[in-house]
From TrEMBL, chains A, B:
Highest taxon, organism lineage: Bacteria
Record-annotated membrane-spanning stretches: none
Lineage of producing organism: Bacteria, Bacillati, Actinomycetota, Actinomycetes, Streptosporangiales
UniProt keyword list: DNA-binding, Transcription, Transcription regulation
Record protein name field: TetR family transcriptional regulator
DNA sequence: TCTATCTTGGAATAGTCGTTCCAAGTTAGG
DNA sequence: CCTAACTTGGAACGACTATTCCAAGATAGA
């Protein structure tokens, strides 16, 4: 029987993902990957193939390990509009403070990069958008059932709105946007989706967002 | 007296801007710039300096020639919410069809690129955001004066929302998003900002957006 | 322990990157 | 026409790019 790998491919891919996430895949060289992972070029190419396949794998890992769990939590949250508000609060906090501050979102960042034309990458981009929108839609449906939402709201359109808003937050956070501004922008949208003007004015569903500022 | 330039620097910068816009500055080499402009490396460096300064110049030109005129038109538009709806209709159309389809927005694209840390570039990014938000705010103020907007709407927050939404549209359009989805997302926001639920349901301010689909 | 089979480190590949340099060409005032 | 001042084409630079290759090392069944 042959030799086995002297490293953990899963841990290596995790480091590659973080490297591409923080710096951007386009401007990160294989030499950087070698240094960050401690692997040799041979092991890297034998395990992951070339850079394009490595980028696709790292992007797929980001969707599975980073995005999807949050999307699933949102879709499973039974609170309605507060669930969406909570999602954005955590998003802004993660994008503007802590370990990954100003890293943005790897999927969002990839939209403008060179690898966006690769089929494997494009597929992840579209899947990310579909899953984000579906999670938003699910939360909006719950909100509608709880009577939190204004009559006549198009849940599909509103879900698309919130997805686009999340991309905007991700994008601007990478340029060092003020978290207060981002949260204010989120609050204005959710207030617009809420049941009536007076209700949201006296007791807004997004009170927690305001408190975060 | 010395020799004069054998080319038009303004026209050359225009071509560079379009090149960076379509392909991305990071993945566009000086060789590509030389080929696209027809200039020699000597003339290029003598006129614009290195690549970083060239990128900053191209980005500044984009803001001045592409973004600002549209922002100014929005800020000067006295229609209120229809002015904002019209802005987004033109945006989606420009991003998804015609000459610059799937190019996105150069400023939006630059948010995720390598040059985003350069002071000159960062300055343009922030200026772009400030001007976009100010234009949105101006249109919202007009809308409030015309009684088109729901009571209690925070114009600053709503302006931030619309700016973030525009970034989302720009980003997703570069990945080939469906223009109908984008317009639906825009419509949902504007309906939420409009005066009352019943009014926007029977006669939405964003009717023209709906018709575009 | 032997050996087939895989992994590993690191050299080497051809190509591209941004940038610099210089001789040759071009201009316009004197 | 002369010449100072500038522009231009194109070669050349070292540093980097992704990728390939191979000898040496490691492994586990026979």
């Amino acid at each position: 029987m042959p030799d086995v790998k002297h490293f953990d491919p899963d841990a290596a891919l995790e480091q590659v993902m973080r490297l591409f996430w923080e710096r951007g895949a386009d401007v990160t060289g294989i030499a950087d990957v070698v240094q960050a992972t401690g692997l040799s070029r041979s092991s890297l190419y034998a395990t992951f193939g070339g850079k394009e396949r490595l980028q696709a794998a790292a992007l797929g890992r980001y969707l599975e390990r980073r995005s999807r769990p949050v999307f699933d939590a949102l879709a499973a949250d039974r609170r309605g509009l507060p669930a969406i508000a909570s999602f954005f609060e955590q998003l802004v906090a993660a994008r503007c403070t802590g370990e990954h501050a100003r890293w943005g979102c790897l999927v969002t960042n990839t939209h403008t990069g060179a690898g966006r034309e690769l089929p494997e990458v494009r597929q992840v981009l579209d899947a990310h958008h579909a899953e984000l929108r579906a999670a938003m839609r699910a939360a909006l449906t719950v909100a509608a059932g709880l009577g939190q939402v204004r009559p006549g709201l198009d849940a599909d359109a509103a879900a698309e709105t919130l997805a686009l808003l999340a991309y905007g937050v991700n994008l601007r956070s990478r340029a060092g946007a003020d978290p207060g501004d981002l949260l204010a922008g989120v609050r204005a949208v959710l207030d617009g989706f809420a049941r009536t003007v007076t209700e949201t004015a006296t007791e807004p569903v997004t009170d927690t967002v305001t408190e975060e500022r």
